[in-house]
Amino acid sequence: MDPNTFITTPEPQEPVVSVSPEKSHFEQWKVWYCAGFVLFTLFVLGYRFLASPPQAFPVDTVIVVKKGETLSGSAQSLKETNIIRSPFAFKSLMVLFGGTKGLMAGEYYLEKPQSSLKMAWRLSHGDYELKNVRITIPEGLNSKEIAELFIKE
User: Fold this and answer.
1) In whole angstroms, what is the distance from residue 119 CA to residue 91 CA?
2) What secondary structure letter does DSSP report for 140?
3) Does 19 have pLDDT greater than 60?
4) Closest by alpha carbon to 52, among 85, 23, 78?
């Protein structure tokens, strides 16, 4: 070989680093765990605001929804009387169930605690749950005896 000739050797290439399958598998599980946690949290919050009634729900009472009452006003009054937890959730459900027709005026009997979901359905569809009672008043009773008959029934 000629002393003026240079021999070049190829430079070593950097090794290709690949992610091990265990690490990518772990990262996938981390994403699934985070997504599961978020869904669980949304479920718990949804249950709390939509499906569970307030602790101090008034039972065996009658609420009156007046004709022309606004959705916001009635949602706020229902919140103040411990019938619903969240006025926003209630109004959203009312729009979902009733569309533009909104509240049905009338007297609604609350026999037992009910969720915001159930209350929105009842108020948007006029489900009053008032029970009809048939009472026979025998001939010859005075007003005091008739009053006692009504109390008994």
Assistant:
1) 11
2) T
3) no
4) 85
**Alpha-carbon dihedral 34, 36, 40, 41, rounded to 10 degrees:** 20
* pLDDT tens figures, 23-40: 567 778 888 888 899 999
Enter the pTM of the model.
0.63
Task: Give the Cα separation of 55 and 89 in Å (integer).
Answer: 17
Compute the distance between CA of residue 110 and CA of residue 65 in angstroms, rounded to an integer: 13
Cα 60 from Cα 5, distance rounded (Å): 106
More confident site: 20 or 78: 78
CA–CA separation, 142 vs 129, rounded Å? 31
